[in-house]
Specification:
single chain, 199 residues, alpha/beta, Rossmann fold, 10-stranded mixed beta sheet, two-stranded antiparallel ribbon, 7 helices, globular, binds NADP nicotinamide-adenine-dinucleotide phosphate
Length: 199
C-alpha cells in the first residue's frame, strides 16, 4: 500500500510527521515544484518525499489536505480515481450550503473524485492537537472515520492504528459523516472533541 498527502500546509505537515513518527513512507505534493519544499519534507524525516501532484496521485491512498475549495483542482489530476482511497481531511467551514447543494461536504468531494472510495477522517482536530503524541495517559487519541465503503473504512482504520491512533468508525457519509463535517457557519458535533480511548 502506498500513501500520499496532497497539501503540505498546517495539516499536511502534521500528517507527514505522523507518518515519520511511525516509520511509514509517504509522498507529499502541492501545486509547487517538489524541489521547492524538499528540505522542509526532509527535515520531518527520510520517510517523507516530495513529488509532483501527477506523481503523488499514483499512490493507493491519498490524503486530501487542501482547502475544500481547492478539491476540484486536485480531482483534475486523474480522469478516474477507480481503485483509490481518498481520505477527505477538508473542513468546508464557511462554504455556503447552496454551494454544497444540500449534500454532506464529503459527498461533494466523492462526486469530484469519480470512482474513488472516500473516507472522511483525520479532520476533526486542529493540527496543533493532531500533532501531539497520540498516546495520552496510556490511552490513544481517537480519529473518526466515515465512509460509504466499509472495506475502505477498515483499511484506513488499520492505517490509523499503525499511525498510533484509535479509529472509531461512524458509518456512512450521510450519517456519521455529518458529525465530523463543517458547512456554512456550523461545525459537526464531534469536531474539536479530543477523545482518548483506553483498552
Ligand atoms: N489547519 C488545521 O488545524 C486543520 C485541521 C483539520 C482540518 N483542516 C482542513 O485541512 C485542509 C488544509 O488546511 P491547512 O490549514 O493545512 O491549509 P494550508 O495551511 O493553507 O495548506 C493548504 C495546502 O494545500 C496546497 N494546495 C492548495 N491548492 C492545491 C492544489 N490544487 N493541488 C495541490 N495542493 C494544493 C497548498 O500548497 P500551495 O498553495 O503552495 O500549492 C498548501 O500546501 C482544509 O480543508 C482545512 O479545513 C485543517
Amino acid at each position: 500500500m502506498s500513501y500520499a498527502i496532497i497539501g503540505f500546509g498546517e495539516i499536511g505537515q502534521t500528517l507527514a510527521r505522523a507518518f515519520a513518527r511511525s516509520g511509514i513512507d509517504v509522498s507529499v505534493a502541492t501545486t509547487r515544484d517538489p524541489e521547492s519544499f524538499a528540505s522542509d519534507a526532509a527535515a520531518i524525516g527520510p520517510e517523507v518525499t516530495t513529488k509532483t501532484l501527477a506523481e503523488a496521485v499514483k499512490a493507493d491512498v491519498i490524503f486530501l489536505a487542501v482547502r475544500f475549495q481547492s478539491h476540484p483542482d486536485v480531482a483534475k489530476a486523474l480522469p478516474s480515481w477507480q481503485g483509490k482511497i481518498i481520505i477527505d481531511v477538508t473542513n468546508a467551514y464557511g462554504v455556503p450550503d447552496e454551494d454544497l447543494g444540500g449534500q454532506p461536504s464529503a459527498r461533494v468531494v466523492a462526486r469530484a473524485f469519480t470512482g474513488a472510495s472516500v473516507v472522511k477522517g483525520f479532520n476533526h482536530l486542529v493540527a496543533a492537537v493532531l500533532d501531539q503524541s497520540p498516546v495520552v495517559h496510556g490511552g490513544k487519541r481517537v480519529v473518526f472515520l466515515a465512509s460509504d465503503d466499509e472495506g475502505a473504512a477498515t483499511e484506513i482504520g488499520a492505517l490509523a492504528e499503525n499511525l498510533g491512533f484509535a479509529p472509531i468508525k461512524l458509518g456512512g457519509l450521510s450519517e456519521g459523516g455529518l458529525l465530523v463535517q463543517a458547512h456554512g457557519n456550523s461545525w459537526g458535533r464531534l469536531i474539536f472533541k479530543d477523545l482518548v480511548t483506553f483498552d
